[in-house]
């Protein structure tokens, strides 16, 4: 029996939401789940023990970043990601495909996964952004061919080629429990023609990713090896197709038929939240019901609540940890900006009913002081609060399905 | 009976070292003790619970910084420093007098408490430093008169006047257990004439500091108030006199005769470590034996070991936490610079025998990765190791007296 399994425990009577459990060799993930991002094998300033205490079940690490620094071979030598970073719970790695977008069109056009509607949600700010609609994601930074993607390293400018085969090899070396097929995340500004061409290539890459994953699996010398190897990792396919109905449907059907453990929704999610939910409406009903569904890079509170109703099981997003570092605390009443002068002498915690370490021990006045004084403890305490907020939100959602 | 007390438990047979215990309303301090610096009401990135786990007994906060931001009135409103920062153990605050030096002559001449011998120990790097010997600490940044010191705030450039009376009032509002008399810390480059003039003024400020401290004590309306007030804080006098024997002797005798709870050695400590120990040799024998002796701003390992042999009880220094943020780990074999390429794939902890959280859970390779990737967890784990190293060192020293 595999170490991996997805069980749907309950489905909602009011929506398509489902409550389930993903089993991995490093533990179980109760779904729906939010996955904090630990790009560089660390979740911004927190120790693994703190993540545990915040009920974080699984973290998301970035293959592209770890491939460049410190390099997947070093991590493999050190015993893999779990041992390297001292986190003994599940990990998922992306394929590097998202960086094709974020370091190419995303950076040049100044957009995120949803086109230019939520400036604060953008991945990066592109100072020369013109917001014109290009007919491709051609980029000086990135060259995409049938073989793969040629990047310039953001660290030293060195040219690197990422292919489906290479991405899977790196992810094998990193050793996360769940890994992703290599894809191209197209820009929300890409036209139909380019999005179609890119999607078809992503489908060919999906097959190559699977083949590489399975070939490596079959390099076994004994029954023990087989079991050990078989049970170590599982792979998700990625659905692309931009904001185009027929492309999303085609991609859902194509990826859904392949023997992936789970399905991830990637790529551009249109120009608004409405578009995003429309895209999920086209896509999710066509996916195999019994496999877990991940929505890549989305983590706004409302987005999560709505997407769960449409049948999404897991989410990853840097938002809660990223905004924490800017002094923004998640609360039931929206974001609280701790720099605001109204908190100068405020003895209250961020949220009175919150049971997190930060709210149990510190006043808004002290947190404001830490942020104004640029003290490291500020971002750390904000990250603790925001991740606890997300865990609490997901727990409530699970209990209500 | 006072809440404050200093007991010498044992004196060394081989040196002037003594082992003792300082009692304060927030707990006891076993001496000799090292006091980590928490300038802005936080010890760089660590929570109070972590400091406790590292056997930190007391922390040192800076009056000048807290006066400017968030302001002592806000801290008082929030219940004082202990409650503000959620640290329920002893705290000592300085008087702001050290900033007279560090933001004036220290900054302009590019020197620390010991003149220009250990560049990495310098408070700040002065790019235009000429290292010429000035005949005073006259400065464009700072104006010193009999009344006090006029600063320009390093935050907003606003002019502020710090006097002995003001310094004590601020320290009363902050509410640390131990506070310091207001002084001028002269530059190691100041000449005899200026150092003498400054020391005599510091002596007058010492009396004003004591008077302000005691006057406030006497503003009592009932026996209960008296007790409460009497037991809340105690004050240390500061000995100046630069590297001049007769001035140090005069200052030791003058401050030693005043009814201070403890004695701190401040000011310039000459041009070398040898000078520093010479100065301590002149000074310490003239101080009242039964009061605690603090050496301000010194915390190098060898300096601590030698100064304890001369009779120092407590030390404060930003070194262990400051170098931690630059990737330097304290070890029995000296400083380990984690950026070094030799640690790229090093599976070992910083020190095999170390029982700190960092050494128990992380490899040098991972720590190096965190520092190269500029991840917050790196400085935090280094700070944990370095403070644990200091606690362990002091414990060993105490056991060997």
Describe this structure in words.
Two copies of one chain form a homodimer. Helices cover 40% and strands 17% of the residues of chain A. Chain A has 401 residues and is α/β, with parallel strands linked by helices. Chain A has two domains: 5-317, Alpha-Beta Barrel (TIM Barrel), CATH 3.20.20; 328-391, no CATH class. The first copy, chain A, has a six-stranded parallel β-sheet. In chain A, strands 1-2-3 form a three-stranded antiparallel β-sheet, with no helix packed on it. In chain A, strand 2 and strand 3 (27-31) form a beta hairpin. In chain A, helix 6 crosses helix 7, helix 10 (273-283) runs parallel beside helix 11 and helix 14 (364-372) crosses helix 15 (377-399). The A-B interface holds A 40-42, 44-47, 65, 69-70, 74, 77-78, 84-86, 344-345, 347, 357, 361-363, 365-366, 368-370, 372-373, 375-377, 379-380 and B 40-42, 44-47, 65, 69-70, 74, 77-78, 84-86, 344-345, 347, 357, 361-363, 365-366, 368-370, 372-373, 375-377, 379-380.
């Amino acid at each position: 029996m595999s170490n991996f399994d997805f069980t749907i425990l309950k489905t909602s009577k009011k929506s398509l939401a489902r409550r389930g459990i993903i089993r991995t060799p490093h533990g179980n993930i109760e779904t729906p789940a939010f996955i904090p991002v630990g790009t560089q094998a660390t979740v911004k300033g927190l120790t693994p023990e703190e993540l545990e205490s915040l009920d974080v079940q699984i973290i998301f690490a970035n293959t592209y970043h770890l491939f460049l620094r410190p390099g997947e071979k070093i991590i493999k030598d050190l015993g893999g990601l779990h041992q390297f970073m001292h986190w003994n719970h599940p990990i998922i790695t992306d394929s590097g495909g998202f960086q094709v977008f974020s370091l190419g069109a995303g950076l040049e056009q100044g957009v995120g996964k949803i086109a230019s509607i939520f400036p604060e949600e953008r991945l990066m700010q592109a100072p020369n952004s013109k917001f014109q609609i290009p007919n491709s994601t051609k980029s000086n930074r990135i060259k995409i061919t049938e073989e793969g993607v040629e990047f310039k390293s953001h660290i030293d400018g060195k040219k690197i080629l990422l292919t489906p085969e290479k991405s899977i090899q790196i992810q094998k070396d990193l050793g996360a429990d769940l890994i992703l097929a290599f894809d191209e995340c197209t820009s929300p500004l890409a036209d139909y023609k380019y999005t179609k061409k890119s999607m078809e290539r992503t489908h060919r890459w999906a097959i190559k990713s699977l083949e590489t994953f399975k070939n490596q699996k079959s390099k076994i010398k004994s029954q023990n090896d087989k079991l050990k190897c078989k049970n170590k990792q599982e792979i998700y396919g990625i659905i692309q197709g931009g904001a185009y109905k027929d492309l999303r449907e085609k991609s859902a059907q194509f990826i859904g038929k392949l023997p992936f453990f789970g399905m991830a929704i990637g790529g551009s999610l249109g120009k608004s939240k409405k578009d995003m939910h429309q895209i999920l409406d086209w896509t999710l009903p066509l996916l195999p019901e019994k496999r877990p569904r991940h929505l890549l890079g989305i983590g706004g509170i409302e987005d999560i609540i709505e997407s769960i109703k449409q049948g999404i099981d897991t989410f990853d997003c840097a938002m809660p940890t990223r905004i924490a570092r800017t002094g923004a605390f998640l609360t039931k009443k929206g974001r609280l900006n701790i720099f605001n002068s109204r908190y100068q002498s405020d003895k209250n915690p961020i949220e009175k009913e919150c049971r997190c370490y930060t709210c149990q021990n510190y006043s808004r006045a002290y947190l404001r002081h830490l942020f104004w004084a640029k003290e490291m403890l500020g971002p750390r305490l904000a990250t603790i609060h925001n991740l606890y907020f997300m865990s609490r939100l997901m727990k409530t959602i699970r209990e209500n399905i």
